[in-house]
Amino acid sequence: MIRIISALLLTLSTACALAQQAKPIVLADNAPDRHVVVRGDTLWDISAKFLKEPYRWPEIWRMNKDQIKNPHWIYPGQVVILDRSGAEPRLRLGQSVGQNVKLDPKIYVDQENQAIPSIPQQVIEPFLSRPLIVDEEGLKNAPKIIAIEEGRVYLGPGGRGYVSGMTGDAKLWQVYRKAKPVLDPATQEVLGYEAVYLGTAKLTAKGEPATIEILSAKEEIGLTDRLAPTGRPEIVSYVPHAPTQPINGQIAAIYGGVNQAGRNSIVTLNRGTRDGLEVGHVLALYRNGGEVTYREDEGDRKTEYKLPAERYGLLFVFRTFDRISYGLVMSVTRPVVVSDFVRTP
Known about the structure:
Layout: H1 2-22, E1 34-36, H2 43-50, H3 57-61, H4 65-69, E2 79-83, E3 90-93, H5 121-124, E4 132-134, E5 144-148, E6 160-164, E7 172-183, E8 190-205, E9 210-217, E10 226-229, E11 248-254, E12 260-261, E13 266-269, E14 282-287, E15 291-294, E16 303-306, E17 310-320, E18 325-332, E19 336-337, E20 341-343
Antiparallel strand pairs: 1-2, 2-3, 4-8, 5-6, 6-9, 7-8, 7-10, 8-9, 11-13, 11-20, 12-19, 13-18, 14-17, 14-20, 15-16, 17-18
């Protein structure tokens, strides 16, 4: 009996997934027949020109799972064509502007730095190597500032500091302060520790201690602050797509410590890779409707109603950790606040 029930549940789950996939694609109002890709475009921008739901780009492009994770690069000058000749619309690449040959989607290794990113790269680039999610020990054993140049209490751009424990050949470093806990809005459980980014520094002389020069500073830098090598940000090449499994999470924090967020803001989610999230996932934003008390007349009994949650926007997951992810708010009709819900769209 248990096996039969399990089989029925699996069949039902599969049927639901197929029903979702069968949901018809709706073209955007006044969708163009073609679009010439220009510098500054993103996959999200381009898909929004053709689709009401931009995250369904892989479906209209007929991409498989591997292509979603490692998409064909698209470059300025190429032409994206909306083909309406079949039963369902599809997108394809046509002749590039100024060329007489048909280009199929492929990877151009020598032009990778010109490729169109999934979302605005300039917005998320600082967050591809920061913030830094660490364990409870944080950056306890990382190189630390043990002295600063005479006459200064804190360091700013151009300031000189001395660092103990700096090894390796890295020339550029990021400076962090003691990590702060990220709490789950629902359970108040500590999901991880986010190191507070302070600025950048360059190594000017090796040794014990080594000498550094501060290149930039968001906040004052001083004794006991820690350093980590600067990583090279990578282009987020995942195509925007919805998760294939149900995701139910919440906004755990808004970057910068503000109370509300809007379009192009960075938010922290209380879900990560262990929950099935991956770079490129698009999630819908919801706000709980709350509860109301209704009474027709003064003498009538009060009735409690729970209002439905309302969907008000979309976000794009661009960096993931085990239990935490970072998302870029793509579109909203109201401000995002901590504890709002994120779900598979």
